[in-house]
Each structure stands twice: as structure tokens, then as C-alpha cells.
């Protein structure tokens, strides 16, 4: 029963991927050759690759530098800096992009795109590196210093090698997000696969051009995902050692304190103050024309969609998450991995696949809320599966056995043991899905029924017609809704900070 | 309170890896029995079958006269067996307080009764003020005691303890053992303790069941087990041993430690003898004719007593256990005499690569 449900969920998750594969077979090798080996595709590949590489390098430098300052040096106000360095995550990338381009229209270049996506994505590297720094045994650093190594040599020869796994994980996360990024790059008019697919779709609906581009993009994602899975397998070893129990003696910066503070201030200023300031500016400009009713109804629609998707997606994650822990085996691992695989497909591809499938197979479902909810489920299942899975791990079968020996029936155990233990994990998973849906743009643009406006699409249509003042309020509401999740993220990692 | 009778229980996991190969065990009502064996011998599997978490492939389990598993009908589910279970790490429900954990198995009306919880906390020697704490705020020893109180709360006919002290450090282990023993004795519950720690089994239990490779090897009281183990394997498992090759002639074993009287009748011929280190006595060498002189290889001083490692002239090493008063120094020659009698085992019963066995 549980297995059947998990299989059904996995099948849904793999639907877009299956569509791309089926399409490729249908097209045949010669058709693919004709559509893929074109100068246009080469150009997009070059654009995408250099943006991904540049962003990953920049994010690593910023993320590791900031994490080292906050975790291992005497820089003043480390707690506050930590929160400020995670905070850019509360601003969706396309809002970052809006904030910059609306102030500096000249940013529609490679350098501009690199700047904007780096500023919105560097916390993806910063967070795991901070966590890794906390897991490092300070005794190793002390030993290295005792052997005569300088602070720089300690960083390079002792800390950096141990951060490798966290750094790789963060880099892959940045790369996968960037491959799927649509809104931010479209707004900056920087052509990559996602924006090209969207333009093709606008021009020819679901023509072969869009689908083959989607196929190439999916291939890129799968390569990265394979790397991620291989890395995840090793990560458990890296985390095997117990966390540091002894407080770390921070490196005294002395004369370098001022430059360090300046560096952090510039980073936070660019990644947080500029977007928020820009939003405030446009908000003030457009305040007179603000339509409160429209804003309220759009927020209501978004919250409703988010809540429904959260409940639905978490419910769908339960069988896979449960089986992955309680019935560990080849099949259940495969089922769990299928949900990850399905969601590594960018939102634009998921949307494209669902549009085509719903038109061909179930025309009565085309442009309805269920299809949109299905897209959300496919995209955000892993967030729910991961949290449900770790919640099930917190409730080992031992508790069931003990409760049974105390005379508790199966139903009684579900009520008094299993549900209370799973509830926090299920809640956290639902909250993560909810927040992701609230700021989702790409799939919503393509799949929302005519007349259904979410915060993201309303923001998008206003900013596309360069009505920045009308767009800003929607962005502000999105940032406010996403902020709690960011606070949670930073608080979780803040525990055990060394002061 | 009721007795426990296990008859011919077998259990295999997967394709033909037998874990239990026909275990018979009787635990009298109100007694404390330890299931002792090295890890992997099947003792935890047996415990889980008794508790009802697992089913035997064959054989029966009976509580008093009631067959609960392997009988003609369906086996009785765990929740209807009335067996208390104390898992290895305590297994306290993390979302409930101490009071919530202890009262978990009580009927609904009694759950809110704080008096019953206080009574049980007192029984296991804990402060009643702990009732409102969460499990993660307790020390390991306190968690184990709460787990025992939780198991005892519904007044079970039998309590099963699955290596409950193995995760505690030495000092805490002693204290927790004493408190748990007292609580079990006070309620008069029949108890079965699974352990791989021979000192724990010998000190706590009324009877010890030694298990090996899925079989029950010996079931007896702790003293008999230590003094008359079934075979050399059991002997070396339940305590430090001196095992020597010997030649038995007319009730006396001739071995590297001289002539030692043997226990019971044993036919003349080659044999292996077992002595305990505390049976060896050391004195200044010199006077007596035919005395065995050994060289002191090393001394491990423990405070209350000490272990002296002795190199015997016939190229073997044995240990003597001495009180901590006057100890020889390393390198000195000492005369070794044996107090009491030796246990004799047939030569075939070797295969014990114990470190204390003479080489060659």
C-alpha cells in the first residue's frame, strides 16, 4: 500500500523527465542533430557555462571568506553579521535582479548578471561552510599552530581541505539553481537556456525548438545531480566526527579589523541594503497608485495556493520518506532518489512538459489549478521528503516496541507516539514548500489559469512593462513572507557560535 | 508475577543464517536471570521473541501456564503480554516528560495521578522533582532508571532488560545497577537481563544462562557457574583463568605448577586443568623441595588488588591475583603454590585462544 503510493508519487515526479526523453526518441537522432548542433545552442551553452563558472567561483570566495571571518576571527558583532549574511536568501533572485536593473539599466551584460546572481546566491555556499567550520575540531588548528604554521598556512593546509566537501556541496547547489534560474536573467536580458526556452515558447508555443533546448538543459542538470549524489554519499563520512566541544580561540585581527569590517559591510550592503533600499524607493514612488484591493486579493490567492501545495506535497512525501527509513532497500532508495531526480529539472522544463502533456492527454485539465499544484509538487517534493525522512529517523521503531510492551494498541501508538514525533518534521517540510511556492515564478507564469494572479506573476507583469512602482509592493510582500524561513535558517546555524 | 518457559525456540534471519538453534530456558517466578553471552550469540533475539516484537520459527514461549508464542492459536501480541521492556539506551519517548513516560502504560484514569509517578520515581531512587523534566535533560543513568520505572508502572508479570547499563560509564553503572536491582527486588518482579558483561551477570542475577552460537550452554547460579563451568570456553568467558596442560594420575594433576589435587573423579591420562588467578600464592623461593619457581614478568597494580604476570620455567605465562599489600617486583623470582583444587577438562576441549594459556 505504502509502496504503491510511493511509486505513484515517483511516477509523477519523473513525468517531465520522461516527457523529454520520449520527445527525444520521437524526434530521432537526425532530428536532434538538426536542432541541437546549431550556432544558437552553442552560444547559449557558452553563456550558461561562463555564468555558472564565474558565479560558483565568486560565491566560493565570498562564502568562505565571510564564513572564516564570522567563525574564526575576532571581528566585532559576529552574531549580527551571521544573520545579515544569510538574510539575502529572503529576497528571491528575480527581485534582486529587479532592484539592480531598475536603478542601473546598464547592468544587462555578463558582468551585471555575474554581480546580481552572485549577490543573491552566495549564502548557499556561506551556510554549509559555516556549518563545516563549526564541525571542525579546533584541536587540529591548535596542533598546526603548535607545529609552527602561520594563520594563512593553517587556513590553507588544515581548514580548507576539511571544508572541501561543504564547499563542493554549496557550489553544486549554486550551479543547479543557476541552471534553473529564469526570472533574474530574463530581467537582466542575459540569454541562457531558460530564457531561450521561454522566448521560444512565447513564439511557437510548444514547438520542437523549446523542447530540444529543454533536453540539453536537463542533460546539464543531470550531470550536476550525479556529482551531487556521489558527494552526498561521501558527506556522511565527513560528518562522522563529533562537533567541537571546546570553544575556539578566535584569530585576533588587530590592525586588519577595519578592512574586515569594511569588506563585510560592502558585501551586506550590496546583497541586502541595495535590494531593500531599491524596493523601498520604488515603493515610495508608486505608493499613491497602490491598489490595496488588488494587492490583498493577490496575496490571498498566493497564500491559498501555497497552503494547498504545502499540504499536498507533504502528504505526497510521506510514503517515500517513511519507506526510505523504515524499509531501507534498493527499491525504496530508488523511489526516494526519483523524487530528487524529478525536481532537478528546472521549473521552465517542468512547466513546458506539463503544458504539452495536459493539452495532449487531458485537455480538460489544461490551465487549471490541479496542473499548477502538480508542478509545485514535482519541483518542491525533495524539500518535503528530506524533512519527513529526518523526522522518521527521529522516531525509530524501538519507540513502537516499547509502547506496545506497555499495552498500547496500533492506533494508540500512532496517536501518542508516531504522530507527535513526526509532527515537527512534517510541519517544517510543509513550511519550506509553502515558502518556495510563494516566491515561485517560472512554472506559475506558464501554468497559472488565466486570471489567476500570484505575487510573483503580478510583480513580473508590472516590472516587465517597466512599471517599477507598481511592481515593488508585490516584491515587498514576498520578502516579508520569506523572511521567517530565513530567520529559522540562520538561527539553526547560529547555535554554538563561539561568543 | 509469573515464570517464563522457553522451549525449543529457533529463529533464522534471511537465507539460512540461524540465530537461535533450539533454546530451552526456564525462569522461575520472582527470580532474576541474566542471559550472558558475547555479542552475536542471539541473546537479544531471544529477548525480542519473549517480548513479542519478533516471532520464533519454531518452539514455544509461555508465561506461567499461558503459551504466548508458538502455541496452537495465534501468538499473543506484545501489548497483551504484560511484559515490561527496558531497551539499551533507555528509549524514553523524547516528546514526553519524565512523568509522561512513566505513566505511559497506565490506564487513562491513573495517568494524571501524580502520586503513582512519585511512587515509581522513589522506587528507582530518583528525586520526585524530576517528574517535569524532558528526557534530554537527564543523565544517562537517570534515563535508565526512568525507563525501568516506566516498565514497572503497569505492574508487569515479567521485566526484560536489554543491556541497560552498557552505555553508562563505570562509576555510574555500579550505582544504577544497585538502584535497579533494589527496585526489581522491591516489586518482586521476575526479571531477565541481557548482558555481555560477566561481572554484571554474576553480581546481579540469581541464575545465569550462558549463550553461545544460538544455544544455551549452561544455566545455573552465579557461584556454580564460576566454580564449575561447563567447559573451558565458558570458564574463560565468565572470569580470568589459568589453563594448563596436565597429566592426571590418581586424583592429582601434574602440570607446570606442580601437583594439584583435582575436583571429582577423572580418569588417568592427559587433560587440561583450569585454575583461577586468585588460587595462586607466591612466596620467597628457597626451602621446599620440588617447588615451582617463576619469574615475575610484570605487575598490574589496581589498588585493592593486583595482577602479577608470571613466566613459568616451562615457557608459559600465567597470572596470579594478589591482595595489594606485599607485591614482588618485576624480574624477581618467586615460588608459586596452588590453593584449592583444579577443574579438569578433556584435551579435546581446547580451541580457547585465551591470552593466559601457556604457549606450547
Automatic annotation (TrEMBL), chain A:
PROSITE patterns: ABC_TM1 (PS50928). It comes from the Bacteria. Gene3D superfamilies: MetI-like. Residues 45-230, 299-489 form the ABC transmembrane type-1 domain. It is a multi-pass membrane protein. Keywords: Cell inner membrane, Cell membrane, Membrane, Transmembrane, Transmembrane helix, Transport. GO terms for cellular component: plasma membrane. The keyword Cell inner membrane applies. The chain crosses the membrane at residues 44-70, 82-103, 109-133, 165-188, 208-227, 256-283, 303-325, 337-358, 364-381, 421-448, 468-489. It is found in: Cell inner membrane; Cell membrane. SUPFAM superfamilies: MetI-like. GO terms for biological process: transmembrane transport. Belongs to the binding-protein-dependent transport system permease family. This is Iron(III) transport system permease protein. The lineage of its organism: Bacteria, Bacillati, Actinomycetota, Actinomycetes, Geodermatophilales.
Automatic annotation (TrEMBL), chain B:
It comes from the Bacteria. GO terms for molecular function: ABC-type ferric iron transporter activity; ABC-type quaternary ammonium compound transporting activity; ATP binding; ATP hydrolysis activity. Residues 4-238 form the ABC transporter domain. One of its GO terms (cellular component) is ATP-binding cassette (ABC) transporter complex. InterPro entries: AAA+_ATPase, ABC_SmlMolc_Importer, ABC_transporter-like_ATP-bd, ABC_transporter-like_CS, ABC_transpr_FbpC, Mo/tungstate-bd_C_term_dom, P-loop_NTPase, Transp-assoc_OB_typ2. The keyword Iron applies. Keywords: ATP-binding, Cell membrane, Ion transport, Iron, Iron transport, Membrane, Nucleotide-binding, Transport. Its EC number is 7.6.2.9. Pfam families: ABC_tran (PF00005), TOBE_2 (PF08402). This is ABC-type quaternary amine transporter.
